[in-house]
Amino acid sequence: MDEPAGPRALEALATEDRRFPPPAGFADRAVVSDPGIYDRAERDLEGFWAEQARTLQWRKPFTKVLEWDLPYAKWFADGELNVAENCLDRHVLAGHGDRVAFHWEGEPGDSRRITYRELQDLTNRCANALKALGVRTGDRVAIYLPMIPELPAAMLACARIGAPFTVVFAGFSAEALASRIDDSEAKLLITADGGYRKGGIVPLKKNADDAAARARTIEHLLVVRRTKQAVPWTEGRDVWWHELVDAQSPECPAESLPAEHMLYLLYTSGTTATPKGIVHTTGGYLTGVATTHRTIFDLRAGDVYWCAADIGWVTGHSYIVFGPLANGATSVLYEGTPDFPDKDRWWQVIEKYKVSILYCAPTAIRTFMKWGAEHVAKHDLGSLRLLGSVGEPINPEAWLWYRKTIGGGRCPIVDTWWMTETGMILITPLPGLVTTKPGSATFPFPGVKVDVVDESGASVPLGGAGYLVIERPWPAMLRGIYKDDRRYRETYWSRFPGRFFAGDGAKRDAEGYLWLMGRVDDVMKISGHRISTTEVESALVSHPRVAEAAVIGREDLITGQAIFAFVTLRSGNEGSAALSLELREHVARSIGAIARPKTIMFTPDLPKTRSGKIMRRLLRDIANGVALGDTTTLADASVVEMIRSASGSGSED
Ligand code: WTA
What domains are there in the chain, each with its CATH number? Predict the structure, then answer.
């Protein structure tokens, strides 16, 4: 494991002393305005979360709150509830059936307004269709859909009948989809004919066919018609959504499910080539995401909330689907990219729907900075009152630009730190209470306890940097890695026994503010997307001309990190621009376009330790052009010089 990255970033942050207290008018009306919430949760953690859990609707009330058998937690274990009932029926019964759940905006400009009643109807029909296709409580369902209303409806339909689902981001390849289907043993795959991307069509059905052919367990494909082009069809196996779902009854009883029933699996990259299936369950997860969504985004009546992530990532699960719907929020759901048809699309959407809360990633903000404020200035963003950031560290310049240019200087910013494994936001300001500093995620959420520790696990004094650990369980925490107890214990609980090791470096300043500094393991963050270096390496090595590869994340002004691959070819091959292009495409085909290396550098050798381990840290320093650290453990020091003198000859986009 490497030491926390970015000493230069640290120096920059050390000088950041601007601070922004909550605006007076904001604080007075905030959902949380009593600072006593921190003490209350600290004094009585279980009481605090039980109170939050009771804001949900339980079929069978819980009597136990937390059972902690390290490293496995159970929350509200003897209670029973249903997630879809909490996200839909509850609001309809309370008289909010006509409230908009989603203002859906399609990429080509088509749009749909979906009320809570309509979403309930769609969900129930889909749930009945799942049953008609043989899906029962406990069976797994894979979902590979673009950002269309059928996606949240399919997730909720699974939740309604208790079939754990796994959503696979529609940008992933057939191969990536197949491996997730195999691991989860899904029997049904819900997909679409295609998805729109910048005016073109992504052939989702074709990818789904390839994946289903490779995977062992798929019995049926349920296919939404979105793009309407001709698609291959397997009679008997494939079923059109508009034929089967539309014909179903809009009534479907919600199963009463134990709080610890598995709600979904979400595959995420770790430090090996195989993604891990993160397990999330029902009662604690819904409590965690509903509470954090309401309090951190300060959700009030009349708000229009927009989380611009993709539902294929955890941010979309927790803060497009489950948190907002549990809270009865009105959200925007947008299918496309920020620059289609023009670079002002987001601002147009905000003006059109009068969005009041925007939640997005620093990469997007930096991209908008690069495109220039003139695109923003074309639209009235006066409806905005709160801004959020997630997925990667936000640099102070981007934070300040976000505040001024998007937020008009009046909107508080919540920089929210969390991960797929945590299920919910863990480090964040509460916008009515906490004075923010640009670039700092500030403090843990009430009841959450973290520490910053050194190699030995000792707490680092204020002002110091180290590894971020989480000290006690929280309701939305993962319940393990699917079918892999050993990997779960090793990955998160062995580095600092008894404490959850997040994999991030962090600094705590003199006032205790937390500054997240990025991953300290072999996980990269490309535009906020999590990709493992080893996954890209193994894709490269699977190419017949590649002997060896080492992949690192190189600092990038826009995407945070960009994929930089050092490649050694098998003898008899020469590096060339054409081969570089071929290798980059090869990776995109085997994982997905998000994993396509930005730069490939051919090198005759790679720096290794005497025991044969590739020294990625050295390569990272070379790629980033910083002074090299300790090279004394190198088996052959001349390799570094060779690579250094060759660097700059890498080929890029
Ligand atoms: C990073 C995304 C700095 C971090 C929700 C973490 C952040 C990884 C922040 C998890 C933030 C997320 N500041 N870094 N506000 N939020 N990260 O699983 O490195 O896709 O470990 O979940 O994103 O990525 P994941």
Answer: 26-504 (3.40.50.12780), 523-652 (3.30.300.30)
